[in-house]
Every structure is written in structure tokens, then in C-alpha cells.
Amino acid sequence: MAIPVAKLSFREPGPTIGARNAAHVYYIATHGADGGRVGRALFGPDPQRPPDRVEVQRAVRDHTGPVWRLVLSLREDDALRWGYQARADWERLARLAVPQIAARMGLDPGAVRWAAALHRAPGHPHLHVVLWEDPPTRRQGKLRPAELREVRQAWARQVLAPVRAPLAARKTILRDSLRVAANDVLQHSISLALQAGARRRALRARAGQALQAPGRLSGPKPSPLEQELASRLLTLAGRMPGRGRAVLAFMPQDVKDEALRVAERLLQHPSLAAAVNLYRQTVRQMAGLYTSRNRALDVAEQKAMRDLRGRIAQLIVRAAAQLNRDIRGGPIVPSTAPTVPPVALGAVRGLLLAASAALSEAQRRAEERAPTEEERARRRDGRGRD
Fold first, then answer.
1. 294 in Cβ contact with 303 (< 8 Å)
2. Where is region (Disordered) located (predicted)?
3. N or C end: fewer C-beta atoms under 10 angstroms in the chain?
4. What is the pLDDT of residue 32?
């Protein structure tokens, strides 16, 4: 797969430029153009009213502002793979892409005029587009480097929409699956923290009142990482504000920083590691649709991981607030803590191959996890105590 190519040049108004613009329109409409032999090469915004070549030539010849020339190209095998074979497919693509390109150039949408022709050159079919404003609002023809990048991205985004859509769905499914699995781990960590707190209270009571202390924690022995997460969650719970919403953005800076650090460790949990790796790969695949530079791919991955850490940190803040309420609510006799259900790698891959089935599964799990009336009442009571 090759990155879609978008080339742009312009002609400022001048004594001979109008004639050269008109000659360019004649060239793209007659020399190798699809439909050129029957005089139907040009097409524009309205599929019912194709532009007349002579009228377009007259318009660009007499125009008093810049006239831009674009070449929008694909590799032939990519065009076939992505479904851009018939002329109607290219026309539809142009009608989606050209307004986006004009917007990135800062042109007035109501003033934009354009005409295009398809050339089926062997190996690289491409569109020739002539673009101008009537009346002109932009007087500078040359685009800044940032504007050129946005023009290329707008073209690539429209071309690759059929490819990008399943990748975006996969990314969303993975992200949501990671949030569900992270919440499982956090609930397990809350159970461990509550058991550890109950054990410490019992030890203090034993020292002062000769009561028998409980022995080992109930349930399977937690891993070192699970013990660390429970300990850090317990510490974070003690630093939570006494009131207010449990929202990461509203937390003191030290709580935010610690929640993000805990999120980093949580994403290393064995039940999340495989999905995290698939998430990273998917992000790089999406970014790779628009660039082949490793630096740009790294930046895209880092940005996506920051976003994921922030979402997980929000879960951690809520878990710490829940633990804080449970501790302040009085002694709790913990039930046997279940083992953490790992995120099955095979199931995740299945989700990626069948997005609709995955969404149904996510909805089913959400319904199963919906709180009961008793849980809602307990949470309301907890907020009242805050």
C-alpha cells in the first residue's frame, strides 16, 4: 500500500497567466482524460450539471485571484483494492475530498469553484483538479507547509475512509475492552485492600485486647503486581478529597500524578498486556495510512497511550473514592476475593474480526454489570456521607 499523493501548484494573476490557466483546462479535459473523446471529461460539484469546458476556460482566464492546480493520485493496485475503479467512484471521491481540501486552504465554501478530470495513467490513475474562488477571498496563492500537510491529510482521509473505518472500530473495541478488564482488576484490588485493612485492624485489636487475628488473606494468593496495586490504591484512597466528584480533572495535582502512575502499572497486568499490544499496533496501523515516518508513528502511539492512561486513571480515581467510602463506612467483613478474569486474547481477536458481534457482547456485558437497586442505594448513601 502506498500513501495517496496530493500535489498542489498555483498561478498568480498576470499578463499571460490567464491564457495558461485556460490551456491547462483544455489539456486536462482532452489529453488522456476519461470521457475526453466524447467531450464529457470534466465533472464538478453537481453530478447533474457537469461543467462546460469552454465556460471553465473563460472563467480561469478572466479570474483576478489565484487559480490552484491539484493532482490527486493513487497507485493502481490500491485504487482497485479500495474500490476506486469506475468513473462514478472517482467522481464521488472528488466531491467528498475537494471541499475538505478547500477548507484546509482557508477558502470560502460559498465561493469555491472547481472542475476535475480523471486520467487513467497506467500504474497511477489520478485526478486533475482546477480550483478557484469567485469572488476571491484568499489573495495569497502559496500555501504554508502546515496547510500543505493538511491538504494531503484531507485527501488521504477521504481515500482511506473504507480502510480506516474498521481500524477505528477495532481501536474503540480494544479501548473499551481494556477499560472493562482494568475495572475488573481494580475491583479485585479493592477487595485485597479491604482485606489488608481488616487484617491490620485485627492485628491492632489483638495487640490491645488479645483478640485472635486472622491469618492469611482469603482467596488465592495475589501476585506481587496485584499486591502493589492494592497497596497503592489504598494509599491513594487516603489522599482523596473528602467531598466532590471523583473526576480526574478535578483532583489535586499529586492525586492526578499518582493515578496516572498507577494506571501505567495497571496496564502492565498480565490480563491486559496482550490487548495493550494490539491497541498499540492498531494505532500505528491507523497512523501508517497517512505517513511512513517512524517518528510520526511514534508520536501517534504516544498520544494514544496518553489518552488510554488518562481513561484508566479516571477508573482508578473512582476506585480510590469507592475504597475511601468503604473504609470510612465502618468495619467490613470481606468476602472471598475472586481471581481476576483475564482478557482472553482469542476473544479480543474475535472481536476484531467481527465488530458487530463485539458490540453486541459489549452491550450484554454492560447490562450484566448494571448496578442493582441495592447497589444504587448504597452508592447514594455513600455520596450523602461525603
1. no
2. 362-386
3. N
4. 82
> Count of CB atoms within 10 A of residue 283's CB?
23
Mapped to the 3 state alphabet, what secondary structure does 238-295 carry? HCCCCCCCCCHHHCCHHHHHHHHHHHHHHCCCHHHHHHHHHHHHHHHHHHHCCCCCHH
Which set of grid coordinates corresponds to residue 102? 478547500
Q: Residue 377 carries which side chain, given as an amino acid letter? A: A
Q: Where are the domains of the chain?
A: 5-159, 163-385
Q: Which CATH architecture has domain 5-159?
A: 2-Layer Sandwich (3.30)
The grid cell for 33 is 482524460
Helices (H) and strands (E) in the chain, counts: 13, 4
The parts of the chain modelled with pLDDT lower than 70 are 1, 36-39, 196-220, 242, 329-386
Q: Return the pLDDT at 196.
A: 62
Distance, CA of 83 to CA of 92 (rounded, Å): 11
Query: 3-class SS at 129?
Result: strand
pTM of the model: 0.63
How far is it, in rounded angstroms, from Cα 301 to Cα 384? 41
Alpha-carbon gap, residue 208 to 56, rounded angstroms: 96
Answer yes or no: are the C-beta atoms of 73 and 4 closer than 8 Å. yes
| 180 CB neighbour count, 10 Å cutoff | 15
Q: Which pLDDT belongs to residue 201?
A: 53
φ and ψ at 306, to 5 degrees? Answer: -60, -45
Residues 229-288 pLDDT 10s:
888 988 898 888 867 788 999 899 999 999 999 999 999 999 899 999 999 999 999 998
The Cα diameter of the chain in Å comes to 104
**Strand, helix or coil for residue 113:** strand
Write down the pLDDT at residue 378: 52
pLDDT one-digit tens code per residue, 32-79: 888 766 568 999 999 999 999 999 999 999 998 999 999 999 999 989
**Is the CB of residue 112 less than 8 Å from the CB of residue 38?**
no
Query: Which cell goes with 210?
Result: 488479645
